[in-house]
Each structure stands twice: as C-alpha cells, then as structure tokens.
Amino acid sequence: MNASTSLRVRLPVLVAVMQAIILALFAMFVTYDDNANAKFQNNQTNPMDNSLYRDYPYFADVQVMIFVGFGCLLAFFRFYGFSGMVFNFLTATFSIQWAILIQGYFQFYHDGKIHLAVINLLNAEFACAVVLISFGAVLGKTSPVQLLVMALLEIPFFSVTEWAVLKYIRINDAGGSILIHLFACYFGLGVTFVLYRPTLNQGHAKEITCYNSDILSVLGTLFLWVFWPSFNSALTFKGDDQHRAVLHTFIGLSASTMTAFALSAVFNKRGKLTMADIQNVTLAGGVTVGASVDMMISPAAAYALGIMGCTACYFGYRYLTPFLARRMRIQDQCGIHNLHGLTGLISSTAGICAILLATEETYGPSMYQIFSHRAPPEGDPKLLELQKLIPGLKPGLGRTAQEQALQQVAAVFITIAASAVGGVLTGLVLKLPFLASPSDEDCFDDELFFDMPADFDSVEVLKPPVSCDEKGQTSPMDTKV
C-alpha cells in the first residue's frame, strides 16, 4: 500500500471525529417526536393513527433505492465493483446520520430540540440521494476519505439552498427535480471540474465493464425503477395528489424504458442493444415527471415527458458527455448531467408550463392546496370561502400563475448557481494531499483500498480498451457513462 493512499490512519481518525461530533449533537439536540414519545400515549390513543404507518413504507422503499439500487448501479466497472457498492454503503450511512441533524435543524427544530420521527429519516434519505448522485461524477477517482468529506460539505450546502428556496422563493417541486436532481448534478460537476485529470480523457486501462458487472449494474437499475414511484410521491399531499404522483412516475418510466430500447438499437452501429443505455437511460422518465408529478398534467403528458427525457438523456450520453470532458474539463464519470441535469431542466420547464395552465376549472378548489402560494392571503374574503370547502387550507401569497412561474424559473437558476459554487469549493477541499486521492494509474481499481480475494482477476492492461467501428477499424472505446 502506498503511504499516500493508506487508510490505516486517515479513515479511522476521520470516522472517529465525525462520530464523536454526531454523538454529541444527538445528545444535546435530538429528542423524540410526539409520535415516538411514550409519555404522549394513553388508553385513548389509536396506535394505527401513528405517523409510522403513513411514512415507514416510503422510508423503506427509498432505503432500498439508496443502498441496493445505487449500490448495484455503481458497480459497473470490472475492477471496481467492491468500491462502487461499499463506498456507496459508507457514504450513504454517514450522509443520513449527518442529514438528520442538518435537515432536522431547518425543518424539525423547535423548543431547542430536533424532534425525531420516521419523516426525519425520509427527509435525510433525500439529502443522501443528492450526495450519491454527485458521487457518480467522481466514481473511480476518489478515496473513501474524500467521499466522506464531500458528504460532510454537500449536506449543509444542499440544506441551506433547499431552505432558502422553499422559504423565500416558495416553489412547487414535489419530485425534487430542481432541489434534488439539479442540485446534485451541478454540485457533482463542480467537484469533478476541480478534480480534472487530463490523462483520463484518453481512457484508462481498467475503465471497462464485464459480463457480471453489467448484470449487477442493471439489477441496481431495476431496483431504482421499481421504487421510483415511492421516491416521487413520498412528500406529496396524501390522497389524490399522491395517487397522481405514483401514476405519472410509472407512466414516465415506462415510456422512457421503451424509448431507450429503441434508441439503443437504432443508433448502435451493429443494430444491437448496449447495456449502458439499459442501465441509465431507462430511468430518465422518473426524473422528467418530477416537478409536475402531483399536478393534473394528464397521463398522456407524463408519457410524452418520459419520451422527451429519455431522448435527451440518450443523446447526452452519446455526444454531450465526451464534449464536456474534452472541451470543458468536466469528466462526468457516470453521466449525471444526462440522467439528472438535462432531464431536471426538462422537468422544471414542464412544471412551469403546468403552473401556467392550472385553472380552477381543472383542479377545483384543491388548486389552492396543490399550488399553495396561489391561495388568497390572510384576510381575503375568498380565503374564508375556500376554507369552508377545504378545511385546514392555509393562507397563501395570492400569487398569479405568471408570478409563480417566474419564481420557479428563479429557483432553477439559484439552485444551479449555488450547487456549482458549492461543488467547486468542495472540490478545492478534496484536492488536499492528505485525503488519500488515488493516482491516475490507480483509478478504477479495487486493489488500491481493499484486500482482494485470491480469484480476483486484475490484469495489467497497457492500452485503453478498443472497439470496432462500422468499417471494422479499431478505436479507443468511449468511457462507459
């Protein structure tokens, strides 16, 4: 083991310090929510009214996505399967712990305490998803120490941005297309921009897949695909809003999957399917419907968004990712700009259109619940009329559709700017020499950080892998994204 990349001191010290800090903060600031506190329960309490039964199914589904879906998906490199899955496991576990505190401070802090319930864990998982998406941009080129530091910094950047956008700009973004996918994408691109490695633009000997690693990766895709409706609907209003979110997500995913198979076959020079397309492009529809997932956009619109997102994602992988690496110093290893950035922008645009087209004729009085900032302000006589139809309706800001749409546009630009700046600053920290960054030669190789079993087939390849073009000539193979 090279001394500059040894984890023997770096990882245990970092983990010990972070765990000591988290333990101290939990002891000082974290207590039970009323739904988890025994002293608030009595003989009149119906256990089935507990929020656990409302929130836990979504928490469990998203947890499968985080630990199994992302973990398997990131194990696509032939010699980097251990690292892809295990570093995801480590980073996700810490991210959720840290997000419980940071997210909890902004959302569940009162009376000097963070009141802990399953909903806190669910919110922390969404923040964790942001970190894991960003991780995809630097996969194979970072140490576990760097990844923990990235999570340590990204969670606060994300939480502050989310709080500012929701509190002061006040947007509709039920599926997180703006605050999760766009933030994660441009944060990750900011990090990889700073960590640019010129030699990797020529390809790397171990930047290849194999039969088993591709099967494992597509298994991760299937887990993400199956549970994505829970991801998009978890934080929507219960009832018809959540019902639409599940329907739209499934329809969008279905459309993007069918489109991905067609595009993969028609643009392959030998008319065959490409596993990279199946692993990534099929998921685009889940992101593309996100910003409007709970709105009355119609099933046909959800289907069209799935096709649009898949098409943009596919051509992004094919043409934009290599361009960014060659011309803009952005080596987006897993193509997060295609699956989360381009689709996030399409989704944000669709959400803005849905807001502009929303009328009481389509939504009825519930329009002011779904688009809460368009509800009449306190003191408006119309608010009293609406509260008779929808008990518990809260006062809004009285915004018009056009005003709300402009706020959505502002949120997109602010989120992209904040995440890119945060990513660049985090990248500068990750360049510090004592964080065990692998050399160019050691990238995409499990042996650098793991004791490998005897049957590990690590071959020394001196040239980048090659592929055949349609004339039968060989050329360096594009990076799998």
What does this molecule look like?
- The radius of gyration is 23 Å and the shape is globular.
- It is mostly helical and 481 residues long.
- The protein has helices at residues 10-29, 52-73, 81-107, 118-135, 144-169, 177-194, 211-233, 240-267, 275-280, 284-288, 299-327, 336-357, 360-363, 367-370, 381-389, 401-430, and strands at residues 30-32, 109-110, 113-116, 466-468, 474-476.
- The chain has 16 helices and five strands.
- It has a single domain, classed as Ammonium transporter fold.
- The protein is 60% helix and 3% strand.
- Helix 2 runs antiparallel to helix 7, helix 6 (177-194) packs antiparallel against helix 12 and helix 12 (336-357) packs antiparallel against helix 16.
- A three-stranded mixed beta sheet has the order 1-3-2. Strands 4-5 form a two-stranded antiparallel ribbon.
- Residues 23-433 form the Ammonium transporter AmtB-like domain.
- GO terms for molecular function: ammonium channel activity.
- Keywords: Ammonia transport, Cell membrane, Glycoprotein, Membrane, Transmembrane, Transmembrane helix, Transport.
- The chain crosses the membrane at residues 12-32, 56-77, 89-108, 114-140, 147-166, 178-196, 208-228, 248-268, 280-297, 303-320, 341-359, 409-430.
Structure, briefly:
The protein contains 16 helices and 5 strands. The chain is mainly α and 481 residues long.
Task: Reconstruct the topology from this structure.
Layout: H1 10-29, E1 30-32, H2 52-73, H3 81-107, E2 109-110, E3 113-116, H4 118-135, H5 144-169, H6 177-194, H7 211-233, H8 240-267, H9 275-280, H10 284-288, H11 299-327, H12 336-357, H13 360-363, H14 367-370, H15 381-389, H16 401-430, E4 466-468, E5 474-476
Parallel strand pairs: 1-3
Antiparallel strand pairs: 2-3, 4-5
Helix pairs in contact: 2-3, 2-4, 2-7, 3-4, 3-5, 4-5, 4-6, 5-6, 5-16, 6-12, 6-16, 7-8, 8-11, 11-12, 12-16
Transmembrane segments: 12-32, 56-77, 89-108, 114-140, 147-166, 178-196, 208-228, 248-268, 280-297, 303-320, 341-359, 409-430
GO biological process, one term: ammonium homeostasis
Keywords: Ammonia transport, Cell membrane, Glycoprotein, Membrane, Transmembrane, Transmembrane helix, Transport
